[in-house]
Amino acid sequence: MSNIAYRAELETDLNSHDEHSPHPLDAANITDSSTPFVRETKGFTSVISPKPPSTSKLSSIGWYTPAVIVGGFIGAMVIAIANYVYFYVIGGGDGRPIDEVGISQATNSFLILVFSRAFSTILTVSASSAFAQLLWWYLRRRSLPLEKVEALFQLNFGPLNLYQLGILKLVPLLWFFGLLLLLVPLSASLPGGALVVEQVARSATNAASIPALNVDFRGNGSAADFFKYAMFSTMPDGDYKMPILEYSAIGKRSLLEGAYLTRTSPCGVNCSYDLQFAAPSLQCKDANPVSTAKLYFNTDLNDTYAQNGFYRASHYPHNPNFKRVNDLYEFVMIWAESDGQRQNATLRALNCVAMAATYNAHVNYTNSIQTITVGITNEKPLNATALFYRSLFYGEQHAKDGPNGIEYIYPTYTHSKDELNALFHGCQLLSMAETLTEPLKGDAVYLGTDGYNRSSSLIQETPLTRAAYDEQTKDYTYMDYNLSPDILRDLMTNVSLSIFNDGQHLTSTSVTTETYRLSYVFKSPWRLIAVYAVDLIVTAIFLLLGSIAMFQNGVAATPGGFLQILCTTTHEHGTLNQLARQACSGGKEGMPERLMKLKVRFGEVVDMNEDSRFAAFGTEEETSLLVNERALSPLKRQQHD
C-alpha cells in the first residue's frame, strides 16, 4: 500500500458525473497498465498511479449482437409484408372462395398463428437484445439497489415486474421498454382479424329460358289455338264477353291483397333478369261527379230510396255502347267522402282510360323472394270501338284449320292476318284491364235507417277501405275509401304484374345468378398495416437507443446470459460477494435485507490483494466509472490520459 499515492482534487466539468445525469462516455477498455487509473466518486476524482495490471481480456462488440438487433427487425418487417401479401392474395378485392384458394380454414388459422408468433418472437428477440444493451448502459452509470437491478433483469423475460412503479420512477426508459416487450406479442395477434371468412355473392350471367307473358302468342296460328291461348271468352255470336275465370281470379286476388302476386323463382335462390311485355295501364284523373252521378248510380234503386243513402262506389253497365266513348275504354268511379254522417257526404269521381302499354320489368329474387321494378312506356289508348263490334270473332268460331292457319267458312266474317293479330292483341289487353274493373264495379251502400249493407263491389274487402266498427251496435259507423288517380294506376300495374307472373310462355333472356360461397375476405387492411406499423416504429426507436448504448459500452451484452453474470461478479473480496455468501441458493425469501438494499453498479474494480484491476459489480465506493476510450473524442481522450 506504501507504493500507492493518493491525490484528491475537485472534479472538473469535463469529468463531472452525477448519478442522475450519467456521462455519455462509458465502458472501460483496460489494456494499458501505464495509464493512470481513474476512480470517480461523488464530487471527487481519485487517481491511483500507476495502475495495477489489468486481468480483463480485450473486449469488443463483435457481429452477433448487432446482427440479432438489425436482423431481427428486418425479419419482423419481412414477415409483416409477407402477412399482408398472403392476406391480399387469398382475400383481396371482393375476396376469393375457399374452395378456389385451396387452403382450408384450419390451415389458414395455423398460418395466421405462424405469422403472428414469428413476427412477435423475432421482433421481441431483437428488442430483448437492445434492452440488454440499454440496461448495462445504466448499470455502468447508476448505483441501483440490488432488488431494482434484479427486477430490471427480469423485465426482459417476465413482465410481472412492471407493477413495481419504483422502476418507473428510477429508470422510466427501461420500464417502458419492458412494457413494449409485453405488448408486442399481444398486439401481434390483432392483424389476423383483418382476414375474415364470410358468405360472398358471386355473379354469373348466362342465357336461360324464363316463363313470361306473351299476349300475342296464338300457338300454331290455327282457330283452335286462337281460343286456346285467349285470355277472354266470347258470346255465341262471336262478341267479346269478359276475361276467363282463371285471370279474373288473379285480378281479384291482387285487388284483395293490394299488391302483385309473386311466383316461385325459375332461376334459383338469388337471380335477376329483365323482360319486356305488353299489358294495359290506366290513365286516371279527378272528374266532376255532379253531371254524371245519376248515370253511374245503381238504377235498380228508386229515387226516393236512393236519396236516403249515399253510394260509395259506382259501376258501369254491360252495354257496349256505354263503353265506347270517343273510341276510349273508360272506367268511372264515384263515391262519397264523409265523416260518417249522411248529410256531410261529398261526392268524388275518378275517370280512368285503359291504355295499351309496354312494361319493362326487372325481376329480382333474393333468397327466393321476388321483387319487380317496372317502368311503363309507349302508352296508347285502347281502341274500344273496334273491340266491341258485334260478331267480332264469329268467323273464327266457325273456321277450319288450314295449311296457312285459319280457313274461313263465312266470307262476311273474315279478317286479314294483321287485322286478326291487332284484334287479338287488343282483346287480350282489354280482358286484363277488366280483371280489375269488373270486381270494382257495383255499389257500396250506407243507408241511414238500415245501417251498413254488403254490396256488389269488391272494394269493401280491399285495403282501400277505411271503416270504423262499433262494438256496442255491432255495426260500422264509418266507411270511406282511399282512392286517387295514382292509386288506381298502381292497382292496374299490380294486376298486370300478377298476370305476368302467371305467364307460361318460355322466352330466352340473360339471367344473372348469384351464389353465396364461403370466401376469404381481406376486409380490414388498415388493421394489419396499423398494428404492424406501430409495433415496428416504436420498437425501432428502442432498438436505436439500444444500439447507441451498445457502441458506447464498447461491448455487447447478452440478455440473461449466465457467463455474463459469472464474469461480472468476480470481485471476491467485495461487499457484494460477502453478502451474497450469506444468502441461500435462491428465492426472494432467502435474500438478506441488506443485500436487497445494497446499491451496486458495474464498474472497474481494483483488487489490492491480488494487485489487479478488472470490470465487475461492486458498490459505488469499490468501483470506478468504466470509460470506453474508443468512444472518447481526441480532446477528452487526451484529458482522460
Automatic annotation (TrEMBL):
Keywords, ordered alphabetically: Membrane, Transmembrane, Transmembrane helix
Record-annotated membrane-spanning stretches: 63-89, 110-139, 162-184, 529-551
UniProt keyword Transmembrane present: yes
Name of this chain's protein: Formylmethionine deformylase
